[in-house]
Amino acid sequence: MNKFIKLLILACELHNIVIQKTIEKGDYMSYINNGNNLVFGGCDTVALAKKYGTPLYVVDENYIVERCEEIKESFLYKYKNTNAVFASKAFLPLAMCKLIAKQGIGLDVVSGGELYTAIKANFPLEKIIFHGNNKTEDELYMAIKHDVGRIIVDNEYELELIDSISKRLDKRVKILFRVTPGVNSHTHEYITTGQKDSKFGISLSDDIIFETIRKTKVLEKVDLMGFHFHVGSQLLDNESHLKALDIVTELMYQSLKRLDFVTRELNLGGGFGIKYAFGEDRKPVSYFVDAMMDKLYENCKKMNIEVPSTAIEPGRWLVGEAGITLYKIGAIKSIPEIRTYASVDGGMTDNLRPALYGAKYEAVIANKVNEKKVKKVTVAGKCCESGDILIKDLEVPEIESGDILAVFSTGAYNYSMANNYNKITKPAVVMVNKGRDRLIVKRETYEDLLRNELY
Ligand code: LLP
């Protein structure tokens, strides 16, 4: 190869590495390209918008790999008998399954559809754990037939189904009980799950939990391995995880004392928060796992019980900041002395979170990242719904129709919660990595919308 070309390639790679590092810091404004365009995953976002159209989900593969590495370094390699699964509800195209499998991380699925996706991606099925508060008989049959690693049992109804299916298929099934530790967490009411009044998990009332354990112990083909808790999502402190851990280690102790039940496995759930708005910060995974592991070791020592093997199941933390969404600005409407609306070509169909949880996002004008911010606009979606507002009072430079808006931290629960309200088609998903881009989900077409409809 010509020396000059080699040098050019080296310079490009160096440039991309620098950009990758600035993404790490989470300083959105430092994504700036040489020109005036936002660069993400080493790719010029304005060029991506042109190439693939908008709205467009862009996901940085390298970011996800780095988070997987962090999980390995800070949890899997650091502590004995540990396991990590990615909560696939956050983002599960086939390409993501492949990527997670390649990293050696497992998968948490909550539906037949998620399980089917994993099966189609040839995901190692023994690394799958199956969640859900109302798994159907068909879903459980599918999971048991395919020998998924663990089923996290949420209630007694499910236990009866598993008992009968395991006998019918003559398969041993390893399960954990998801318990409701009864702790409140500091997050949106819709994404707290650990409080007593929750649709998830088995109640820790003595007469319920110990009776359920007792019943399970005698089931012919079912092995109860231990317990699972998940206290909530987008948690930026570890307080509720630690409270829940105290409660569950006490449960382990009581189960041993009263029923001679040894907890071999403990799943500590996910819920680790990320950066959405300026000023928020994603904590390293060690912030959560070190504190929990210290407490677990300490409690087990105090209670004189064996330390079970442990698992974590982060979703958002692994992929949230890996994603941005690109939109094209269309109509701009100024209401004198009130506000200016900048409408984009997507909205609550590709990002339901602001409408559903009042979630806050940050964004920049991708083709004007160096320009001075001079005004505030409210970013509206295109759905026929007043609540379809993506960002209120976003500071922007002078904007015009045709500008590209890039919204940050849309990697988790955006594509996976996308819908077809107003018969709006779902965006494409592009995976970027150090300056390269590839389509991993095609944009939906109008024909796709009608595929299942009959006269
Ligand atoms: N494990 C269990 C049992 C869960 O229920 C969840 C999330 C997770 C793990 C992963 O949580 P994460 O690490 O992603 O916080 N749609 C909502 C989030 C719902 C989360 C439900 N369960 C949102 O957009 O914020």
Topology:
Layout: H1 3-25, E1 39-40, E2 43-44, H2 45-52, E3 56-60, H3 61-76, E4 82-87, H4 94-102, E5 106-109, H5 112-120, E6 128-130, H6 137-145, E7 150-153, H7 156-169, E8 173-180, E9 202-203, H8 206-217, E10 222-228, H9 239-259, E11 265-267, H10 285-303, E12 309-312, H11 316-319, E13 323-335, E14 339-344, H12 353-357, E15 363-365, E16 375-380, E17 389-396, E18 404-408, E19 428-433, E20 436-441, H13 446-450
Parallel strand pairs: 3-19, 4-5, 4-12, 5-6, 6-7, 7-8, 8-9, 8-10, 10-11, 11-12, 14-16
Antiparallel strand pairs: 1-2, 3-13, 13-14, 13-18, 15-18, 16-17, 19-20
Largest sheet: 9 strands, mixed
* Portion in helices: 25-40%
CATH architecture of the largest domain: Alpha-Beta Barrel
Integer tally of domains: 2
Question: What's the count of strands?
Answer: 20
